[in-house]
Amino acid sequence: MKAYDVKKGNVVEHNGTVYQVRDIERSSPQGRGGNVRFRFTMYSVPGGNKTDASFDGDDELKEVELLRRQASYSYRDGEAFVFMDDEDYTPYTLDADVVGESAGYITDGLTGCYVQVIDELPVAVQLPQTVALEVVETPPELKGGTATKRPKPARLSTGIEIQVPEYIVNGERVLVNTTSGEFSGRAD
């Protein structure tokens, strides 16, 4: 496929490594006869190592077939995470280094995940946009404070720490954005 046909989310092979394109910058030349250049921000699959690469619009890139299978988190096997396919119950085992920082958002029975599969091997997991997690430790609200919204730190049941509004208390379930790691509202 040509570089100008590549869209966000496509999986391509570059220098012998498989990458998923996350961001595309298009730069048009100012003078006549110049070629349009594309700058891709790509992450290796598996591994998630970031790389930037520039291509002319006519550069040829090999597209890699990537299957996305809807799955649910099943259990943890040592350091590995096991997801179960929602349709045919195929187990997909992903190492902790493949899951990476997403591990902090995975809870028992988490649904709405997508396991990315290349050549019948699970290579990455895509979590739902938001997940509900329980606040296990956060300081109490300051009474008589200012009328402004001040965030405070909160440790969640999976061990990650995020900033939450002052009115959130221990034991409350909150929605967390899995992309930005930010508070998205109350869960219940």
Which descriptor suits the 3D outline? flat
The amount of beta strand, in percent, is: over 45%
Classification by helices and strands: mainly beta
In the sheet with the most strands, the strands line up as 4-3-2-1-5
Individual helix count: 1
Helix content: under 10%
- How much is the average pLDDT? 84
Cα distance, first to last residue? 46 Å
Radius of gyration from CA coordinates: 21 Å
Name the poorly predicted regions: none
Largest sheet: 5 strands, antiparallel
Count of extended strands: 15
**Strand-and-helix sequence, N→C?**
EEEEEEEEHEEEEEEE
Describe this structure in words.
The chain is mostly beta strands and 188 residues long. 2% of the residues lie in helices and 49% in strands. It is built from one helix and 15 strands. The strands form three sheets. A five-stranded antiparallel beta sheet has the order 4-3-2-1-5, with no helix packed on it. β7 and β8 form a beta hairpin.
